[in-house]
Amino acid sequence: MWGKHSLLQYRVLLAATAALGVAAPALAQPPAGKDPPTVGEVRVEGAPPPVRTSIDRNSYSVANDLQATAGSISDALRNVPSLEVDVNGNVALRGDPNVTVLIDGKPSGQFQGENRAQALQNLPADQIDRVEVITNPSAAFDPNGSAGIINLITKKARKPGMNGTARANLGSNGRQNGGVSASYRAGKVTLSGDANLRHDSIKQDYSRARRITEPSGTVRESLQDGTQGGRINVASLRGGLDYDVSKDTRLSLELRYNRFDFRDRSYESFGEAAGGLLTEGYDRFGRTDQDNEQRAATVRLHHSFGDDHTLDLDVGQERIAFGQARTAMSILRTAAGPVPYERILGDAGFRKTTARLEYARPLPGPAKLKLGYSLEADDNDYRNTGLRGRSAAAAAPDPALINTFLFDRQVHALYVTYERPFGKLSVLAGLRLEVTPIDLDQVTQAIRAKNDDTSLYPSLHLSYALGDDQKLKASYSKRIQRPNPFDYNPFRVYQDPQNFRAGNPALEPQKTDSFELGYERRKGGAILQATAYYRDVRDSVTDVVRDLGGGVFLTTRDNLGKSRTAGLELVANGRVTPTLTYNLSSNAYWTEIDGRGVGLGGRVRDGWTVSGRGNLSWQAASADFLQLNVFVNGERLSPQGYFKPFGGVNLGYRHKFNDRLSAVATVQDVFDTIRFKGVIDTPALHDVQRFIPQNRVVFVGFTYAFGGGKPRDQGFDFGGGGGPPT
Known about the structure:
Elements: H1 4-22, E1 52-53, E2 58-61, H2 66-70, H3 73-77, E3 83-85, E4 91-93, E5 99-103, E6 106-107, H4 116-122, E7 128-134, E8 148-154, E9 161-171, E10 176-186, E11 189-213, E12 219-246, E13 249-274, E14 277-306, E15 309-332, E16 341-363, E17 367-389, E18 396-397, E19 403-422, E20 425-436, E21 438-442, E22 447-450, E23 453-465, E24 470-481, E25 493-496, E26 499-501, E27 510-523, E28 526-538, E29 541-549, E30 552-559, E31 562-577, E32 580-594, E33 604-621, E34 624-633, E35 636-638, E36 641-643, E37 646-656, E38 661-668, E39 676-681, E40 685-693, E41 697-707
Parallel strand pairs: 5-8, 26-30
Antiparallel strand pairs: 1-2, 2-7, 3-4, 5-6, 7-8, 9-10, 9-41, 10-11, 11-12, 11-40, 12-13, 13-14, 14-15, 15-16, 16-17, 17-18, 17-19, 19-20, 19-21, 20-23, 21-22, 23-24, 24-27, 25-26, 27-28, 28-31, 29-30, 31-32, 32-33, 33-34, 34-37, 35-36, 36-39, 37-38, 38-41, 39-40
């Protein structure tokens, strides 16, 4: 798949990353009387602000990413090593899209299922302080997500008195956003809150060209061209209360509210020919109206018995109400074609209940023991109805569009981890037991099923100090990938005249054994990391595409075959000059996918993917700061084909008028190069799908800090560092 030119680019990228890491200044010695840390979090002091590393994770600051000041969470994640985000907001970790997204260590319904990409694109990033990338989580974490975990850590306010910031940004194409964050601390009470409004315009062109060779030898070809545009309004609110019951006990309450208001209009032209003769053609005018409302509440109790001896309890509930209406009118150019008018209504209700009880205490050694129980319970209801007819006035309910699906799942987990240094060697071992009952009810088809699972998930992390500035790391974890709730729904759901989708109530979770071996070197504020990894996946949950005839396809889900991935990731952060800092990363991996069970001539496929990103930050003057970000996501395999590479360039500039007021200007996708192209390439089916979004946007904004005391300038880091631990 990759030719000499691509391999040459990869070698150059690796060489540049390694050279910059080696060229970093010498490491400063630890203060007198203090031993270097062996277990737990490492603070890499110096400039740029440090990347936080620990035995089981890396943490990257995005609090001062200029793109994140006006952009979405997706914009911020594009600048984080190990992560890739496509044009539709789908995030992948080292090329694997099966990743779990958490907020402050807790799951959220808005980041699960098919709506996760939309939530990442819509929610503002300015309240995210840093991103933890956990590629091999310990047993203290939910093992769901074969690639690992992305943990979004929100900003915390602990300054005495009243403090806050106000932000306003205006962008091209009618985009705008703003918000206020404030906190008040007096004595034992801390109040905090955020309010954000966001308006985005949406526009993209798309096309889909298909060629199917039928068993009779007849070749059927179709071409779909379209454009869509609209807007998204987002409102988000958060309120928090912390009460220090005593010097050792804190009680916290947090409330969140988010609302998405999406309106979209589209036009597409479709034509199909069989044996060289036009068989179907139409023009289709569509409209989509969608509303999504989320409410969440969490209560937390933290008690400290002494150093590293703690008890934590938190209970939360989240409710999401989702409503969508899709209306389409078709003008036929041939006798065959879709019903001229259709209106499809979808309503869903999601309720997620979470609970966690965790006890940690130090042991002789020094060692640390952690015991915990967690619960994650999902109660989801999906209801769809639809009308079809020759016109809106003549439309009547269509049974093929009506279905009700109920989904209930609970995940009960007991876990234990044990962490201890043995001289230069640090060990973190863990074991997790999960019991997962699942109840499915396809009401319309009178299909009821159970799909339960009980499994053990071990984890092991090792860290060995080669010296004061170097260490080796090794880790193993057993992971799963639970199917999304709607993946279990067997009802054949209409997507458009050429495509249907159905789930499979018999799906089993995908299982992964994940291995890593890493090297870390720190030099005077710079850090170089090299990580080799291998993932062995069984019972892969895979899309299966089948030809229903007449140019119509059905996509289902099944456990088919297995896949293997082996790769090398390099990350380097440091300083080139006193005013110029860098953050570079590259990732190259080989993947083998067994696609023989997906139909239409699927086969075993393998190939290399190479991706990379680079960030430069320049303090041009005391009041002027500039950032440059470049990223390239390489070609990636799918069970029946591949996704083409794409990349982009972002620019940012900040000017500080004084300690409270600053202005920021950013340009996203400077050269308008972010594209999506997916290809299915089998002997029976050749399918090319393209999306060309309007990604280039210019933002100009102002941020004002208010409250008592002089605001602390945290500096800037384009996805590559972080502040001191909280």
